[in-house]
Amino acid sequence: MNSLPxxxxxxxxxxxxxxxxxxxxxxxSCVSVCLYDSKLKYGAINHxxxxxxxxxxxxxxxxxxxxxIRIIEELLxxxxxxxxxxAQIFGGAEVLTGMSVNFHIGKxxxxxxxxxxxxxxxxxxxxxxxxxKGRKITFNTLTGEVKSEIIRKDYIDENIDIKIKxxxx
Length: 169
Prior knowledge:
The chain has helices at 64-77, 105-119, and strands at residues 6-8, 13-17, 22-27, 31-37, 42-47, 85-91, 124-130, 135-140, 146-150, 160-164.
């Protein structure tokens, strides 16, 4: 797994390449959707901050509804098909404290991913979301494998919702 080139994905960005990479990102309330075409062995990942573009600012990849659709479109330009694409969702923790916790940004970020993937009929094979601690994930775009670690290893967050379904990966 370490022989591939590494790429650090910053918030409000996407990564879609035909060349295999190990893509690492750090998530708190942000969410990453990892898409993988099991036939062509191409992967794509995003890191979005907010669930929906409000139509007022510039369209950027910081919005889930924009960045998820964009990585789907990019994979389709590589010859990928909906039938061969599976998704994994990570992040969406409620890491903020104080008044901002009332906005439930993590939960809303998770929901937009689930809604859009359902709309495009892309199955979610792994979902590791929620809780109140951040995660570091590393996505292998060649194999579709994702390594996920809680930022504080000495803490077990019982609120994390982990779902693993049998998938094509």
